[in-house]
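This protein record is not my work; I was only asked to verify it. The record follows directly below this note.
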Amino acid sequence: MTKKLAKPNARGLRPLEKGINPETGKAKVFWLPTDEREAERRKAAIEALYTAEGVQWNAVSVHVAMAIARGDKTMIVDADADIQALQSKYPWVTFVWPQEIAEARQQEAKKLLTDRLGTMRGQCLPSFGQLRPRTDDEILRVVAVTELEDNAVEPALIDATDRAFGNGTAAHVRKNCDSLLHSLRAFKGSLHQAIDAYAKAAKEKHVSMDDGLPTEFALAEERFCGFMKRIFADMPLAKYDLAAIDSLRLTIKKRPLSYRKKPIAPETVHRLVKVLNRFHSWLHKSPDFSWRKPLDYEVERVNVQLTNAEIQERYNPHNTPIYTEEQIRILFKYATPMERVLILLALNCGFRQAEALGLQSGEYDLAAKLLARVRYKTKVYGQWRLWDVTCEALRWAEGYRPNKNEATLIQTRAGQPMGRRTKSGNRGAKIANKWASLHRRIEKDHEDFPSYPFSTLRDTGASAIRAIAGGEVAEMYLSHGNPIPDGVLLERYANKPWGRLHEALTQWGSKIGAAFKVDDAFPADYKPSNISVSKGTIEKIRKLQAQGYKVAKIAELAGCPYHIARVYAKAD
């Protein structure tokens, strides 16, 4: 039970005995004022301090308690004392240095903050002029509080805040300099933080209407932003001036090493420069950063220097790899039925991965042998005369797809569109994986078979159509934007010569038709097999079996396990 206050003595002071004095080892007596209400308040504060100290006094806490008993608001400490630590531990009084030391440190702190202000003015603060700042003293307060709230990039500025302006600085700034404080706080930050913010904003802005995920453009922006962070050191936005921008452009122009430890491609250089320009435009307008484009800032074109090998590859008209008719025959022979569908769409219609995976069942007419659709990338309409083998392939794909209610033709075994993106929004690698698997099967029997990407089929078709009907028809086959240079208005007044393209496709299809002669190319009862046996081995097994060899001998001569020979040997 709390003891009642003692009666005042002859001097009008009330004695309060609490704990042991660490300096004398005797009971410590504090003297409270005569006023009963004030005495109760000071007594409660002393008891709270005593409890917080673990029911014992130390050399500091006993003097704090004595100051509370006297009613002192402040307590003078030595010059080397840690005021912030003391203030945090003993909030009942305000700790101050002796007057002469406080005045010296205040001047030192103001000089430090003034230097900081001058640096910010000189490097990066057109915002000071735009915001109509108050006095320099108020701006100094803003600088100090901004540094303080930023967990002190420069620790000395934390101490400088209280030394220069005393307690209440933050409240004063928030009340009188809100706009300037927001500007300075927004201006703080680094180049890498701004790049990350831009990448995030791009993913939030560019969202696909089909699946609600970031578009491939947004994901590409994110990848390029990550690469820029890797090749350019972080720095405060205050130092990201015209010289820094030119330095970053020069770094990109020099073609730094990619993640594969090779110089980035010339096309990548141009794309990085475009991303950098978009980043500057976004940063200039962003409300979260006060960075502004330098006065002499210009969007500059970057000229990339090519090696001799790159010049030969780029400008030699015979350097575009294409498949020969024999190579097409091998591809078709070793492919699975689904891979044959993709091969025919690429050759007959000039489809790349995105077009093949996005094909809908209502975009072709097998009776009329015609496929017509708008290419998603270029928004250009195209139509193609289908070969008989292509119609057979599409008819098989319609029956093979697990989910008949899904309009997308090319599906996975689970009935999902094969072109569906991953949860993170990245494009799937289904066709790339199938193409790599097909090449591995071929290379078991044909070691020197060229390892071209899937898009080479499209290049092969374009080269053949160009040789037959010319460049304009080849552009129509590829669904490029405008097949005739400077002929934008012509598209409004004249139809494209689709008949010429159809005739060229028919002529080329007749020429390479023999490459598609495969027994039962699209079996109705097809089931995927996990047994990895090359076509050459299977043909050898069946040839030996036709010659009358037993399974054991067939396995020996064909160089395969017994159970494989037994599976593929035909019964009599």
Q: What stands out?
A: The radius of gyration is 40 Å. Confidence is low (pLDDT under 50) at residues 122-133, 151-155.
